[in-house]
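Bumping my old thread because nobody answered last time. Still need a sequence for this structure:
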């Protein structure tokens, strides 16, 4: 038998197909949102980045459960399309679109002002919106664009809505992080776009580490208030998250992803679990994996002293001078 015979042996194709089937069967975790009977009638939820990907399916689930859902999106046209789709699919007319650009602190303040003026309560906040693979861009607030969108914007949004959530208890905050946080580092000059390498997911990984660090510190500060805060990894999910990556990377991601990665609907499960499940009631300061298990995040994300420092720096950076 030659090397060519080994390489072209049909057994490889059969093994790959079998592996793909096994991975597909395992993609559904033990918790099925459709089997969860929790209703959200009378509850209000905000989902950022709800016009596509994971966020749209989180919003869809909340709408099915009867919640008043606010889709916090940056694009009016994309947001309107999602609003229409969610209303049609769920028959829930209490779905609303509000525009916010999370990379801009002014926009986040404007959005929050509108919510505080118009909403009597807020029971669920899902900080889902995120970007990856952006080239170097500094926002008008002086922050790296990816840091502003993925961390500082959501950090300010949460802070501004916190009193409303404290008056709406029990209330839950769910922050979408990523298993990629394990490749992230903490260097506070990163916030301003300094000492960063703009290649693929390098900047993104740092932002996802800050997500968990600050969620843990927020949870500590919220002890006893009835508001919980947790972070989740949704899994590796076929969405538009790679849209800023080179074509070849996107092509390979889509090709492999078709067989092995989660659909956006499956990617929404761990966030929905944190936001609505009876099993997660009262749980706070934890990091949930894509199969809804509580797992330990990276050591840096468990450093309590670092968390206090990080949180205080983010408070300072997002406060109005
Ligand atoms: N997909 C994965 O494999 C994966 C893995 C781990 C973690 N995650 C996390 O899951 C979350 C959702 O990602 P996804 O995969 O669903 O990505 P996606 O399909 O690219 O959706 C991202 C959403 O965020 C919105 N967004 C981006 N920048 C924004 C800004 N400045 N202001 C307001 N909204 C903004 C987008 O709005 P537009 O459509 O208008 O751009 C879109 O609605 C992210 O936090 C991501 O880090 C994803």
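Sorry it took so long. Here it is:
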């Amino acid at each position: 038998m030659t090397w060519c015979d080994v390489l072209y042996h049909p057994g490889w194709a059969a093994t790959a197909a079998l592996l793909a089937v096994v991975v597909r069967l395992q993609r559904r975790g033990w918790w099925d949102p459709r089997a969860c009977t929790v209703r959200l009638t009378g509850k209000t939820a905000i989902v950022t980045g709800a016009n596509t990907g994971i966020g749209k399916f989180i919003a869809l689930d909340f709408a099915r459960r009867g919640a008043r859902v606010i889709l916090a999106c940056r694009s009016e046209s994309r947001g309107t399309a999602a609003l229409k789709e969610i209303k049609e699919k769920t028959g829930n007319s209490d779905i609303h679109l509000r525009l916010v650009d999370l990379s801009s602190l002014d926009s986040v303040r404007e959005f929050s002002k509108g919510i505080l003026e118009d909403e009597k309560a807020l029971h669920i906040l899902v900080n889902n919106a995120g970007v990856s693979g952006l080239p170097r861009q500094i926002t008008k607030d002086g922050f790296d664009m990816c840091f502003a969108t993925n961390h500082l914007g959501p950090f300010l949004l949460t802070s501004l809505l916190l009193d409303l959530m404290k008056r709406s208890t029990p209330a839950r905050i769910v922050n979408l992080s990523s298993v990629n946080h394990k490749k992230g580092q903490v260097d506070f000059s990163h916030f301003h776009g300094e000492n960063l390498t703009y290649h693929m997911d390098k900047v993104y990984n740092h932002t996802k580490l800050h997500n968990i660090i600050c969620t843990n510190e927020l949870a500590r500060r919220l002890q006893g208030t009835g508001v919980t805060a947790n972070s989740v990894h949704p899994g590796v999910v076929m969405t538009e998250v790679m849209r800023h990556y080179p074509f070849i990377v996107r092509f390979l991601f889509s090709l492999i992803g078709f067989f092995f990665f989660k659909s956006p609907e499956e990617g929404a499960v761990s966030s929905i679990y944190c936001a609505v499940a009876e099993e997660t009631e009262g749980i706070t300061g934890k990091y949930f994996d894509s199969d809804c298990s509580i797992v330990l995040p990276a050591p840096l994300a468990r450093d309590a002293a670092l968390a206090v420092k990080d949180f205080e720096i983010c408070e300072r950076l997002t406060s109005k001078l």
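Residues 145-166 form the longest helix (22 residues). Let me know if any region looks off to you.
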